[in-house]
Design goal:
Largest interface: A-B, 95 and 94 residues
Oligomer: heterodimer
Order of helices and strands of chain B: HHHHHHHHHHH
CATH topology of the largest domain in chain B: MetI-like fold
Largest sheet of chain A: 2 strands, antiparallel
Number of domains of chain B: 2
Number of strands of chain A: 2
CATH class of chain A: Mainly Alpha
Shape of chain A: globular
CATH class of the largest domain in chain B: Mainly Alpha
Radius of gyration of chain B: 22 Å
CATH superfamily of chain A: MetI-like
Number of helices of chain B: 11
Radius of gyration of chain A: 24 Å
Distance between the termini of chain A: 32 Å
Strand content of chain A: under 5%
Distance between the termini of chain B: 35 Å
Largest sheet of chain B: none
Strand order of the largest sheet of chain A: 1-2
Number of domains of chain A: 1
Strand content of chain B: under 5%
CATH superfamily of the largest domain in chain B: MetI-like
Chain lengths: 292, 269
């Protein structure tokens, strides 16, 4: 689909980029720079900041156990949520890609609807399901599988369940769009050569969908690292992930310098992990081996 | 193997749908409970009549912010996609990555950055955007542009530019070429992008929580505050209505452009 469009005409089209560029760079990048710089000032209280630059906020982040453990907690929850999401999402996406007709499009629309509904309503539902007198505990108590209700809210488990619920539909949709492009004939060929269903999945489908696994996994991970709403509500104020801590620093403590230093640190960590995973994934992918 | 996969898919769907179903069922509580019961003690629609008026106001705010955001982001994103794809820039992939950037930044951070920028704006030019609708819309447009750029350019790259050249060769002006040829062909991408933008804006908490003023509280922020501080069973009724509203949007989308386009673009720019 190459075009013979004249260079002048192509140049004319470039003007159309400007509104978006202006909004993204002027309106955001400039404030973002100021914001990052804010992390280099000292907090003087009452929203005032020092004139001079200092690394004190960053030194505090790497030396204060509160912030270090918040980093560790956020990373841990996001990694576990992504892993659970991939374990549940991959087989689901595979089935969706191989089911044909109306059932498939119905199942896919359900995913879309689930990803479209605001996270606060998902959280409300999860609260009704997971609370002390909720659905899960009620069921387990009635079946006499439990003596006392399990604490599933206001702790890490609650936040983890919320993160998986939040990211899963997106993950399945991305995996689905990649697995869909793998021709079924490849699987049939492998099966006709005597490969079992499981080894077809493991040696044909999984390797060929690696780009989707990496892209989807990163998106789910990024969403989880930045998740605010579910972490606040399902953690009951007791699970202090970084986004929760950042909002507290800024809204309750009015400590802009530390809040922006924390945000910048979060951005850097997320960015580095994305770069690292992308580089590793490209290094490790040998398309020839996938088909061997 | 089949049985395992089947069970897993059923489990995933039950897990994904359970919160909505549970909310809808619990909203039918008939007794004057102060909290929720599951299953409800008596069935009735009583709580639907008890939804406090502040939630309806918040719904209106969300609707307005979402609609304006969607249209503005749709227009800017369409223009940017045309520039990216038709402009044949050498560094187009780089720009494309730059346009996806807003999605890499946690929304909490975006919210704080905009709030701070608005405070500074008051100091410098005396215009206040914090706590006002235009300020919130601007921030939402920023985070939704990646979606509209993504959906429109995914349609554009598949579009043969010869249609446009033919129209131009037959004497159509650039504007009428755009209006009669390009626009109708990319319309599904634009609609999908607008739907995404609306959905993101309509559901956002972490940005709106920083930028909402006392008269501009959005529905998700209002629900968020209630879940933290003043739970009320009417929330269940309100949430059920909101779920039905989102459902209707998807159905309309399916009728207008089909879901293929929404799926193809994956929603990630």
């Amino acid at each position: 689909m190459d075009s013979d469009e004249s260079p002048e005409r192509a140049r004319g089209w470039r003007w159309w980029l400007w509104p978006a560029l202006l909004l993204s760079f002027l309106i955001f990048a400039v404030p973002q720079t100021f914001f990052i710089a804010m992390g280099l000032h000292r907090n003087l209280g009452f929203g005032r900041i020092s004139e001079t630059y200092t690394l004190a906020n960053y030194r505090r982040i790497v030396s204060d156990p509160l912030y270090l453990s918040s980093f560790a907690l956020t990373l841990e929850l996001s990694l576990v949520a992504t892993a659970i999401g991939l374990l549940l999402g991959f087989p689901t996406a595979y089935v969706l890609a191989r089911v044909r007709g109306r059932l498939a499009s119905f199942l896919v629309s359900v995913l879309l609807i689930s990803s479209f509904i605001t996270v606060v309503i998902k959280v409300l539902g999860l609260i009704v399901i997971l609370s002390q007198n909720g659905l899960v505990n009620g069921l387990l108590l009635r079946l006499r599988l439990l003596a006392a209700p399990l604490p599933l809210l206001s702790n890490r488990i609650g936040v983890l369940i919320g993160l998986v619920h939040y990211t899963l539909p997106f993950l399945v949709l991305i995996l689905f769009s990649v697995i869909q492009t793998i021709p079924k004939s490849l699987e049939e060929a492998a099966e006709s050569q005597g490969a079992s269903r499981l080894s077809v999945l493991r040696r044909v489908v999984v390797p060929l969908s690696m780009p989707g696994v990496v892209a989807g996994g990163l998106i789910a991970f990024n969403m989880a690292m930045g998740a605010f709403t579910s972490a606040v509500l399902l953690g009951g104020g007791r699970v202090l992930t970084l986004p929760v801590l950042i909002q507290r620093k800024i809204v309750f403590d009015v400590d802009y310098p530390l809040g922006s230093a924390l945000s910048t640190a979060l951005l850097i960590v997320v960015f580095l992990i994305n770069v690292l995973v992308t580089v590793l994934a490209t290094r490790l992918s040998h398309p020839a081996r996938a088909l061997a | 193997m089949r049985a395992i996969l089947g069970t897993l898919v059923v489990f995933v769907y039950v897990f994904l749908l359970a919160p909505f179903l549970v909310v809808a069922i619990a909203s039918l509580e008939g007794s004057q409970a102060l909290f929720y019961n599951f299953p409800p003690r008596q069935l009735s629609l009583a709580w639907y009549g008890e939804i406090p008026v502040k939630y309806f106001r918040a719904f209106g705010v969300s609707l307005a912010v979402g609609a304006v955001t969607a249209v503005v982001a749709g227009a800017i994103g369409t223009a940017a996609a045309l520039g990216l794809v038709r402009g044949r820039l050498r560094y187009a992939p780089l720009l494309q990555a730059a346009f996806r950037m807003p999605l890499q930044i946690p929304f909490v951070v975006t919210g704080v950055v905009f709030l701070q920028a608005y405070y500074r704006l008051v100091d410098v030019v005396g215009v206040n955007l914090a706590g006002r609708l235009p300020g919130m819309i601007l921030a939402h447009v920023f985070v939704t542009i990646p979606y509209t750029v993504g959906t429109v350019s995914s349609v554009l790259v598949r579009l043969n530019p010869r249609f446009e050249e033919a129209a131009a060769a037959l004497g159509a002006s650039p504007w009428s070429t755009f209006r009669r040829v390009t626009f109708p062909l990319v319309r599904p991408g634009i609609f999908a992008g607008i739907l995404y933008a609306f959905i993101i804006s309509f559901g956002d908490v972490p940005i709106a929580i920083f930028l909402a003023g006392s008269n501009t509280v959005t529905l998700p922020v209002e629900i968020f505050q209630s879940l933290q501080f003043d739970f009320n069973p009417a929330l269940l009724a309100l949430s059920t209505l909101t779920v039905l509203f989102s459902l209707a949007l998807v159905v309309v989308m399916q009728r207008v452009v089909g879901l293929d386009i929404v799926l193809r673009t994956g929603g990630n720019g």
